[in-house]
């Protein structure tokens, strides 16, 4: 596990466009969720599904056309009238962490490129 200080060093990518993923509870079927933001350590998703904190799951999504299927645990839940936000902490997997970190960097650079070219 990363310390709190190290966690702050990892950047988070917030999506301006809609990015869909599939959340699958262990031993159950999957449901479509909306990814709001993501880091190499976890994600914030939106769903109308009822989950409890500590639920173990897999989150499937694509970033830069690269598919990911990441195991994780619900660590935070914020209920809104129409939907619920869930904070998901990804399970430690060094290889997957490195691949996701690379793709997050590529995504962030690609998103910033139009702004950099304007200067």
From TrEMBL:
Lineage: superkingdom: Bacteria
PilZ domain residues: 26-101
Species assigned in the record: Tetzosporium hominis
Signal peptide feature range: none
Listed name of the protein: PilZ domain-containing protein
Molecular-function annotations in GO: cyclic-di-GMP binding
Gene3D superfamilies: predicted glycosyltransferase like domains (2.40.10.220)
């Amino acid at each position: 596990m990363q310390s709190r200080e190290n966690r702050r060093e990892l950047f988070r990518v917030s999506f301006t466009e809609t990015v869909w993923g599939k959340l699958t509870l262990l031993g159950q079927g999957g449901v479509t969720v909306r990814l709001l933001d993501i880091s190499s350590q976890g994600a914030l998703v939106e769903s109308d599904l009822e989950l409890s904190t500590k639920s173990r799951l897999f989150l499937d999504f694509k970033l830069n056309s690269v598919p990911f299927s990441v195991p994780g645990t619900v660590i935070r839940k914020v209920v809104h009238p129409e939907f619920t936000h869930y904070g998901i902490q990804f399970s430690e997997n060094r290889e997957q962490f490195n691949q996701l970190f690379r793709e997050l960097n590529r995504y962030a650079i690609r998103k910033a490129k139009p702004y950099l070219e304007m200067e």
